[in-house]
Design goal:
5 helices, single chain, 5-stranded mixed sheet, 2 domains, 5 strands, DNA polymerase, domain 1, 33% helix
Length: 156
């Protein structure tokens, strides 16, 4: 099947097998390897991308379901050589260790903050329940998201 999709602002039309997962399309066809595959069962969130304005786990979406959609991956966040405020906050607050979960965590966190810029620590922890980090203990991830919320709102 042919699909037309816009990824990180660039439109493309490609032929895909109907069973191809969006995560595999992004990684294998478009070579956007920042979106990670962690579990293939939608448990870990490492594959989270933005699809038509929503955070979705791309291991649960078929590429054909994304036909006509606008997708943003971790590679599409930085603009003009400047990191997105969430990326910058993760860097400044040491919100990563091995980094494997980080792209999905950042993508989920951006939508979390966009939906509610006044998040408590409890709100952040609840909002990230679908994203697993096996290294950090989440303390610095929470700090990073709190910091980014201010920057995204224009407070920093």
């Amino acid at each position: 099947m042919n699909i037309s999709i816009t990824v990180n602002g660039k439109s493309t039309t490609r032929e895909v097998e109907p069973r191809t997962l969006l995560v595999d399309f992004l990684r294998d066809t478009l070579r956007l390897t920042g979106t990670n595959i962690g579990c293939d069962t939608s448990q870990c969130g490492a594959c989270t991308v933005h699809m038509d304005g929503l955070a979705v786990k791309s291991c649960t979406v078929l590429a054909v379901q994304a036909d006509g959609s606008h997708i943003t991956t971790i590679e599409g966040l930085a603009q003009g050589g400047q990191l997105h405020p969430m990326q910058q906050a993760f860097w400044e607050n040491h919100g990563l260790q091995c980094g494997y979960c980080t792209p999905g965590m950042i993508m989920a966190a951006i939508k979390l903050v966009e939906n509610n810029p006044n998040l408590s620590e409890s709100d952040i922890r609840h909002g990230l329940e679908g994203n697993i980090c096996r290294c950090t203990g989440y303390e610095n991830i929470v700090k990073a998201i709190q910091s980014a919320a201010g920057a995204m709102a224009g407070g920093d």
